[in-house]
Amino acid sequence: MGTRRLSWPLALLALLAALASANAGVAAGRWLDVWRAFDDLRITLTGIEVADDESAVLVRLRLENGSGRTLRLSSARAGLWLNGRSLTAGEASLSEVELPPGGRYDLELRAGVYADLRDYLHRERQGGRLDWQVAGEVRLRVDRLTDWVLVPYLGTWEERG
Amino acid sequence: MTSLARALVVAFLSGAAFAGLYSSASVALGTLAPVRLPVWGMALGMILVGTLVTLATVELRRALTEVVVAALLGGVFTWGLLAGPGIVVPAYAVRLSNYRLTQAVLAVLLGLLCGLVGVLLGAAVNSGLRGLEV
Lengths: 161, 134
Hints:
Chain A has 161 residues and is of the alpha+beta class. Chain A contains two helices and seven strands; from the N terminus they run αβββββαββ. The longest helix of chain B is centred in the last third of the chain and has 39 residues, at 91-129. In chain B, 45% of the residues are buried.
């Protein structure tokens, strides 16, 4: 059996492993750049407001691209918590909006208000204070990369009734 | 080189190749993966690895074992590659923690699938073209 073994497949395998590993090293470096770009994306909660007809809670966010790369935004989500209780969530599709380096994008997410939340809002407002906590995420990708990544954010908003 | 040492070298090289091929193509994975060139390159590369392992090993049972070990090693290497940025910049570690495990599992599955197809191909070459019993 030993004489029938070929040596060139092992040599070719070693060459393939070396080439693929080198290429993976380059890919890892590119990912490091991508994570840096995500780190330089600032997500700020600029406002929370209950619509006049009390059908929705409007969450306003500001996205600022502090990186040197173009970011493509796919969607955004905001889960709303009120005094430690999860109540509703708003989502928006952003259809690959481009955010150039240094660019800024304001968006508004509409979270539905249902009967139990409406009652709860009335009660809390009579108490004189609403503390909203927002836990959400923005889905985006960097430059021409095809992989999407979720960037999480947390925010709090105090409203005095 | 003893038989075990040779098997370990083959599994290590194949694992490195699996991880390298997967990592290079991972940015092209997603809903439209089957129509993307890097994904085809990765699949064909992994099949080639399985074929080369079988040609180098001859014995089918040993080749199968080596490819399975190589796929597992490929997963470990992929995990390590993605853990790298987390070690360099600790702030990235939390964000990468779930991501790198998902990627490592995917790398193992794809390595197994394509590698075993390669083993079949290598066995066919061994028995059909080289006249060896498998």
